[in-house]
Amino acid sequence: MSESKVALKKSDVEKLKAACKEFNNEGGELINVLHKAQSIFGYLPAEVQEIVAEELNVPLAKVYGVVTFYSFFTMIPKGRNPISICTGTACYVRGADKVLDEFKRLLKIEVGETSADGEFSLNCLRCVGACGLAPVVLVGEKTYGRVSPDEVRDILKEYDYVVD
């Protein structure tokens, strides 16, 4: 079974190497470098992890271990409009699960997946600290409060998503 390689833009690779230099190519700065790498590429595929390991002179297994340990890091590309549904206690009690189900139904994806067109990815969060607005949905940097399943379609339309 052959694994396909991710093609990285040369300009992004140069940005990553510059980021490593900003942190003096020190292995102790691995988490900071990975944050920077994820902001450059949007996610951390194996090819990016290999560059980080080489530049910081740390074992690839250590880089992979950090990437898989911290939930902030992802090895899966996110959609241009990442959707996060808060499933903390207040949001859950007020129907976040039904809101989540409606996003899954309309986008035809599961939690952790990205839509076929690359526009949306779907994730859950534990708490966004806006319990008075429960249930809360984040689309990118925009916050939607007191969301009902009936409003999911309208939220998607704001991002030019054509719902069947």
TrEMBL record:
It holds the Pfam family 2Fe-2S_thioredx. PANTHER family: NADH-QUINONE OXIDOREDUCTASE, E SUBUNIT (PTHR43342), POTENTIAL NAD-REDUCING HYDROGENASE SUBUNIT (PTHR43342:SF2). This is NADP-reducing hydrogenase subunit HndA. Its EC number is 1.12.1.3. Its cofactor is [2Fe-2S] cluster. The lineage of its organism: Bacteria, Pseudomonadati, Bacteroidota, Bacteroidia, Bacteroidales. Keywords: 2Fe-2S, Iron, Iron-sulfur, Metal-binding, Oxidoreductase. Binds 1 [2Fe-2S] cluster. It comes from Salinivirga cyanobacteriivorans. Belongs to the complex I 24 kDa subunit family. It comes from the Bacteria.
